Amino acid sequence: MANKIGRIILGIIIFGGILVGIYFILPGRYKNPLTASIQSATNSNYDVIVNALKGSTIPKNKDKTFDAAMNAATVNPAWTIKKIAVDDAGNGAYEVYADGYKCTVSIENETNSDSMVTHTNAHVRLVFKINKKGNEITIGDSEVKAGSKAYPEQIEVDTTIYKKSDDSTYYQKTLNFLAGQ
What we know:
By secondary structure, this protein is of the alpha+beta class. About 40% of the residues lie in helices and about 40% in strands.
C-alpha cells in the first residue's frame, strides 16, 4: 500500500515538474497572458495597479486608453507586474509591463522624411515604473487613474528601445501609432 502511495506522489511531482518546465520554455505571447491570469488570481494588488494603467490615456491622445490601444494594435495583450521594493501591505515600487504581439509599427524616420521605420510582426512592450500607496498609483508626481495621462518609462519594439528621456521623437511617435490603430 505504501509503495502505491509513493508512486502516486512521485508521479504527481514529475507531472508538476513537467508543467513548470513547459511554462518556462513557452514563448512570451503564450507565457505572458498565462502569467497575467496567475497574477490576477493570486495578487490582491494586481487589479488596482493594472486597472489604473489600463484606464489611463496615452499622452497627446486624450481619447485613447492604453487598454484600448493594446487591444486594437496587438494580439494577445497581457499586463504583468513585478515587485521592486514593496512592503507587506503591498505599497511601494513596481514595474508594470504591457506586452502585445504581432504588431506592425510604422513611424516616420527622424533622419529622412521620405522613409519610414517599420517593425513587422513585432513584440511591443510598454514599461511603467509606478509607486503604490494604498489605492493611489503614481508615476513620478502624477497620479494615475482613469482618464489621466500616464507616461511609460520606455517602449520596446522588438529589440529597439525608446525611452521617455531620449531626445528622439520615436517615443511619442510610437505611442501615437499605437493610439491610431
